[in-house]
Predict the structure.
Amino acid sequence: MAGSSDGSAAGGMGAAVSALRFAVERVGPVGALDLLRHVNQAEGFDCPGCAWPDPRPRTSLEFCENGAKHVAHEATRKRVTPAFFTEWTLKRLLDQSDAWLEAQGRLTEPMLRRAGSDRYEPIAWQDAFAHIARHLRALDTPEQAVFYASGRTSNEAAFLWQLFVRELGTNNLPDCSNLCHESTSIALKEAIGVGKGTVGLEDFGKADAIFVIGQNPGTNHPRMFTTLLEAKRRGCKVVSINPLRERALLRFSHPKDPLSMLRGGTSITDLYVQVRVGGDVALLKALLKELLEMEGRAPGSVVDWSFVRRHTEGFEALCDDVSASSWGDLLQASGASRDDVRAMARLYAEARRVIVCWCMGLTQHPNAVANVQQIVNLVLLRGNIGVPGAGVCPVRGHSNVQGDRTMGITSRPAPAFLERLGREFGFEPPRRPGLDAVDAIRAMSDGRVRAFLSMGGNFAVATPDAELTHAALRRCALTVQISTTLNRSHLVCGEEALLLPCLGRTERDEQALGLQTVSVENSMSVVHPSRGSREPASVHLHSEPAIVAGLARAVLGRDSRVPWEELVEDYDRIRERIAAVVPGCQDMNRRLRQPGGFVLPSGARTRSFDTPSGKALFTIHPVPPDPLQDGQFLLMTIRSHDQFNTTVYSSDDRYRGVRGDRRVILLNGDDLAEAGLREGQRVDVTSHHEGQTRTVRGFGLRAYDLPRRCAAAYFPEANPLVPVERVAERSQTPAYKNLVVSLAPSGA
Ligand SMILES: Nc1nc2c(c(=O)[nH]1)N[C@H]1C(S)=C(S)[C@@H](COP(=O)(O)OP(=O)(O)OC[C@H]3O[C@@H](n4cnc5c(=O)[nH]c(N)nc54)[C@H](O)[C@@H]3O)O[C@H]1N2
Ligand SMILES: Nc1nc2c(c(=O)[nH]1)N[C@H]1C(S)=C(S)[C@@H](COP(=O)(O)OP(=O)(O)OC[C@H]3O[C@@H](n4cnc5c(=O)[nH]c(N)nc54)[C@H](O)[C@@H]3O)O[C@H]1N2
Ligand SMILES: [Mo]
């Protein structure tokens, strides 16, 4: 069967060789070694690959295959110069693949596409800012502009970005979190009073069991395996809940551990439950039911009554709901067997301390908020929160996506935050909630928004409903992209478009008062420094903070209450302001210089829940009805092993055994046979949503070890299938992992 796991370990030499080859191709042999030496070292830069924390003390080479690739991609020797844009019209560039665009290398100078022209031409920085200022000043209201941010942006740049936007007068600050962990933030804030995880890396050293739900860390957070392997060595149990049998979760060998490689790796997962796509609420409800039945048989054996009575509310209602659900319904909807559930319950109840980790497999469904709150139900039941070795651990994607939120990048800021921001800078921030990512697409699409500015990211490709989003961006009078490398969002642009090239994480950032350091916050709320060491890709590049300051000065003029130039001369000055505005960041400059930085405070870590009642909430969630009709499949869109979000490095997905093609769709072999389809055949995939259909053509069929009636395809090739209206309740995150699709042979 193509693509099912072949039993050999993930990681190991394969990972080391793949990373080294990739780096040498881009930066040469000497450059490759130098680069890899500096990633995630105390004096070096934070790896832009993911938000998993660094171990302390740091190892001499905190190696990770995919981190190394992301760094090498930024450090490439290739350049996109003005000469490149003379040669390439927009029309011709649009015909190239996303992978080709990214492979052209680093942007070197600011560029302008004038209205009606089919080319970008160079423009001086000051003229670029003046140009943007003219556009923004011509709007009827600042609400006609949106300011997207992706999660690689440093705390300092993010803080200035939201300050500029709010001084301009809008909260239109959509971000990649809207597409990512928004469901987590909303679910956790309501249930435990804080929208972030409650564990630190040290807790993984004390846990008796770790649940990994809807996450593929072998590809997306390889450094997590250092932690998982250590936990396994201590005898900690790992439960994986995933429709797809991900190879690294089965066996992994650390590229730095020759012994483990010789042994063929370490088996990671003790219990693998192949839940149906979208079946997690049912599965976790089944688990709760089993646990409560165990408690009924031996009172006091499962429930932590003293915690439940003292710190929670809603437990009785949860028990009533769970006992009213039938085993038949729960097993059917989850796809799990009763034995799976019994084994999970036994393992959970036998473990004294449990950590539950999750990622996009839970957050990108219509009932994503419910998914996350079911995890909270599970941990509260046994008091697995706010004590060493236990808690909830949403694993973030972009390396500073959590920090950007802490810095105020959100369309729905807390009133207290705005209060402090206004007081610090002496202006009245807007109170009206702004547009999130999906609302921004709608507003551009119907002409309410006329200008789109983007701090990093690739909005045209990462968002749902490619056709609608492209039309929406094209309707804008102005689009501006602050970026490192070329991508489709630079081509699918407004009437006038600007590219503002910036320094990357790995590069030296020299300002008037010397070499600068930025800060980032990892998935576990640790704020730490990051300092680039490489020569910038071009002498014309500006840092992100300097670009925001230049933009703000040009747009807001002398009326601005913010001393933009002064702040950018020395980032310590930005941090002094952050310290005054952002809770938990007091004395930021001193604390950032402590080894390892500092941890942001969170009540839930000490069982002090910042909810209206001061208690953590058990919440009740219905099992969603089966959305499929005969002949339909529930499709998840996932990352391959060789991409970073919209940046595709190659068409191979090594661990899943898929090679040379990303336009594929993975299906259970029995489903293929039943539908009269065969492996390798090309099909058109149509998504169905409230009477609308969307189709992508010519996807190759692969049989894969997936539950019946589930399917998988790659992000972003499948994004044209995602209806903009199919979003998670309450968080409005696109249901990228929950698309109802049907298949038809291509050309039929
Ligand atoms: N190399 C690399 N690293 C990255 C990224 C990258 O693209 N490349 N992206 C970064 C970003 S922004 C993010 S958010 C993270 C993403 O990290 P992940 O969330 O690990 O990434 P996905 O590929 O979206 O995979 C989701 C996993 O969820 C499973 N899944 C899908 N549907 C369901 C479901 O209904 N239930 C359950 N239980 N599981 C399900 C899939 O089988 C898959 O294993 O990674 C970050 N790190
Ligand atoms: N179908 C489907 N769609 C998805 C997802 C999915 O699972 N399935 N996942 C969603 C998720 S979790 C996320 S987070 C979003 C990601 O959405 P985005 O964050 O918008 O997209 P990225 O692909 O990470 O952005 C890549 C671009 O960022 C720029 N860049 C890189 N480094 C820097 C830097 O240091 N500074 C600046 N200014 N620019 C930089 C480069 O120009 C590069 O082309 O996609 C979402 N879309
Ligand atoms: Mo993400």
